[in-house]
Amino acid sequence: MSQTSELQKKPLVEAILEVKWELEQLTTGRVGEPKYDLLIGSFFQRIKDRFPEHIKLPLAQVPSEMVPHKVQHQFRRAPDMWPLLQLGPGIITINDTEAYKWQDFSALCVYAMSALTEAYPGQRPRITDVLLRYIDADSLDALTPVEFLSKLKVHVQVPESISKDQVVAGAADSVGFSISYPVSKPQGVAALVFNSGERDRKPALIWETAVRSLGESAHSFDREPEGWLADAHAITHNWFFSLIEGELHDKYK
C-alpha cells in the first residue's frame, strides 16, 4: 500500500509519540523529578540548534510535583512551527501535523529520546509507557456519522426497535466508541477510536489509530526505540489504509 506521506490530501490532524517514565517517590502520595530544572536546561542545550524556540506553557507555573506526567515546556524551530517537542515531569512528546512524513518523524523521535537520555541527571529514565498515536479527521459533508463510518468499513447497527422508535426524530447525529486488540509486535495494545467532532468548524468524524506498550512491555522501546517505532508504525499504517481503502483513499491521494 502507499505510504501515508504520499497522500496529497491526507486527513491527518496530528501524529504523536508520547513516552512516560517512572518518577521518584518524594513524600507519601507524591512523586516527581528531584532534578527537574536541571533536566529542562540540559535537554534544551542538546536540542537548541534544531529547536531554539523554548516556550513555557501555562502549566509551567505549577510546581512540577503537582503535575506528574503533564507537559510544561515546548520546543519549536520557530514560533508556531511544526514539528515540536514537549517535556514535563516524567513525560516527553514528539508532535507533527500536516507536513508529517514517517521517515522524518521516526528519526526525530530517536533524536529526541537520545537527547533526553543524555540530558537526564543520574541513571537513565525507566520507561513505563509508550504511545504512538495518529489523529485523523474529515468533514461529514451531508453524511451522518454512521454513514461516514461505513466508508471506513466500520458498520454500526442498533436494534430496529431503537432506531425506528416513534420518539426518534432522525438519524444518529453523533458517535463515540473504541475497540482495542492485544498485539505481539510490539507487545502491547492497538486501538481504534471513533468520535464525532469538528474540523475547520464543520461537523466531522474523528478517528485515531494507536499502539501502546505499558510496564515491562515498554522496556523494548528503551532498549531499541527504532525497532519499537517500526513495529508500532507497521500496525497503525496498515490499519489506516485498511480503513480508507477504496473511495476515501481516492479522495485523499
Please explain how this structure is put together.
- The protein has 253 residues and is an alpha+beta fold.
- It folds into two domains: 11-125, TATA-Binding Protein, CATH 3.30.310; 137-211 and 223-248, no CATH class.
- The protein has helices at residues 36-47, 102-119, 145-151, 160-163, 219-223, 225-244, 247-252, and strands at 12-21, 24-27, 30-32, 53-56, 73-76, 84-88, 91-96, 127-139, 176-184, 187-199, 202-214.
Features:
single chain; 253 residues; alpha+beta; TATA-Binding Protein; 2 domains; 9-stranded antiparallel beta sheet; two-stranded antiparallel sheet; 7 helices; 11 strands; disordered N terminus
Main β-sheet: number of strands, strand sense, barrel status?
9 strands, antiparallel
- Number of domains as seen in the coordinates: 2
Number of strands: 11
Name the strands of the widest sheet in spatial order.
4-5-6-7-1-8-11-10-9
Helix content: 25-40%
**SS content category:** alpha+beta
Computed over alpha carbons, the radius of gyration is 20 Å
Poorly predicted runs of 5 or more residues:
1-5
The helix/strand series, from N terminus to C terminus, equals: EEEHEEEEHEHHEEEHHH
What is the CATH architecture annotation of the largest domain?
Answer: 2-Layer Sandwich
Oligomeric state, counting identical vs distinct chains: single chain
End-to-end distance: 12 Å
Shape: elongated
What's the tally of helices?
Answer: 7
Q: Average pLDDT value?
A: 93
